[in-house]
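In the design runs reported in the main text, the only information available to the sequence generator was the tokenized backbone. The following block is the verbatim input for one such run; it is reproduced so that readers can re-run the procedure and compare outputs position by position.
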């Protein structure tokens, strides 16, 4: 049910931003999974040229990833280009305003402006960003380019902007030279995940910002004969070329950039954890937690990791030098306050359970909803079960929640009927 709702939300977002035809292609890919161009044309019943333009829009705005697969047909190895919709990246379009606020708060309004252009127009070279900046703000003088290049380099260094992935990576299932091996495939089950991993550039290249000479800008202006998209007329696409069955970004010598959604989501997740700890505990615990997350961010392997990377007490004290909360006693007190959210990783090191902090925030939000709908008694039952992780016998709930038995069972029934609670059968061996 949740997956269906997420797909429908994604289709609605694409419809709003790019029109009905592009949304039709996106809906087909979300529903059917990865498809080659011929099959996609048959499913959508769109003319091939129109279908290609729709795919160009979706690829330009990081909503679709193309990839090549090799299949043996009649004794011959055939290479086929397929397309898969990136559901998470489409849903992230809802968070664009939050991304912009984050950049404005962390950097300045000019960095926010650069990111805004990148989010609005999709994949772009730095020169394309500057040209669109001058088009949107005619009052901006041409000598601001070096300043903007410095600000853009800061966004890349902070990992909020990254190089675009390969346009059509080859999926190799078992090869030393392949991008994806069987070992990695044990945890990768969908075409979307396989394509994203195969297309990802090397970490050293992903956040490497090159320098450009003035001569490069002249060739870029020739390239920027931007063509209007006929589908919906809601966006301008970057320069792209296509052959019969595949789509290829033009001018591979120019580096294309896009927003790194993973970094934004991780930063917002960290901010949410800090914002939750501050009122629940105190400012000192929030400051220490912020320092821990900042120090360990580079070592986090996933944007939805349950734990922070391990850290030592000394590393956090060093990070907080000069701060009123940087004394060893203050750090220890803050970690004690975090309680179950701070666990030992190895001898002499600790890690923060981000999952527990987020669960506490979610429970608090759920309690406020339950309180409004079912009153203080319903909220007491919900809090009781949340604190005990639901491991309570039904007959014990009235006494533990201090509620009359008949009333307690009525509230339990309502909470279960509305899917706030779920009954489980436990068999004792």
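Verbatim output:
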């Amino acid at each position: 049910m949740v997956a269906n709702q997420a797909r429908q939300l994604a289709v609605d977002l694409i419809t709003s931003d790019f029109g009905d035809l592009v949304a039709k292609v996106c809906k087909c890919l979300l529903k059917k999974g990865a498809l080659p161009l011929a099959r996609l044309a048959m499913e959508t019943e769109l003319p091939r040229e129109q279908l290609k333009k729709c795919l160009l829009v979706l690829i330009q705005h990081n909503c679709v990833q193309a990839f090549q697969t090799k299949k043996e047909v009649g004794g011959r190895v055939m290479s086929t280009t397929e397309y898969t919709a990136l559901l998470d990246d489409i849903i992230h379009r809802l968070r664009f305003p939050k991304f912009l606020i984050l950049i404005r708060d962390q950097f300045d309004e000019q960095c926010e402006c650069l990111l805004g252009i990148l989010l609005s127009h999709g994949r772009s070279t730095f020169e394309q960003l500057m040209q669109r900046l001058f088009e949107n703000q005619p009052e901006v003088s041409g000598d601001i380019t070096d300043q903007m290049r410095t600000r853009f380099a800061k966004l890349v260094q902070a990992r909020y902007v990254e190089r675009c992935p390969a346009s059509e990576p080859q999926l190799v299932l078992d090869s030393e030279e392949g991008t994806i091996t069987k070992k990695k495939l044990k945890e990768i089950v969908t075409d979307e995940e396989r394509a994203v991993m195969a297309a990802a550039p090397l970490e050293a290249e992903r956040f490497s910002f090159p320098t450009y000479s003035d001569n490069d800008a002249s060739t870029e202006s020739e390239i920027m004969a931007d063509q209007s998209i006929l589908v919906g007329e809601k966006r301008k696409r970057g320069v792209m070329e296509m052959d019969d069955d595949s789509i290829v970004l033009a001018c591979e010598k120019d580096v294309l950039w896009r927003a790194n959604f993973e970094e934004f989501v991780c930063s917002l997740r960290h901010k949410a954890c800090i914002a939750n700890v501050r009122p629940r505990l105190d400012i000192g615990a929030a400051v220490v937690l912020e320092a821990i997350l900042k120090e360990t961010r580079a070592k986090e392997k996933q944007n939805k990791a349950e734990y922070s990377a391990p850290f030592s007490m000394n590393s956090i004290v060093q990070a907080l030098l000069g701060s009123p909360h940087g004394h060893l006693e203050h750090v220890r007190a803050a970690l004690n306050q975090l309680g179950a959210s701070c666990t030992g990783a190895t001898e002499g090191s600790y890690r923060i359970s981000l999952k527990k902090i987020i669960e506490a925030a979610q429970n608090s939000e759920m309690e406020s909803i339950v309180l409004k709908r079912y009153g203080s008694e319903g909220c007491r039952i919900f809090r009781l079960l949340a604190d005990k992780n639901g491991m309570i016998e039904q007959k014990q709930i009235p006494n533990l929640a201090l509620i009359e038995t008949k009333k307690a069972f009525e509230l339990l029934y309502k909470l279960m009927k509305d899917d706030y609670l779920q009954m489980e059968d436990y068999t004792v061996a």
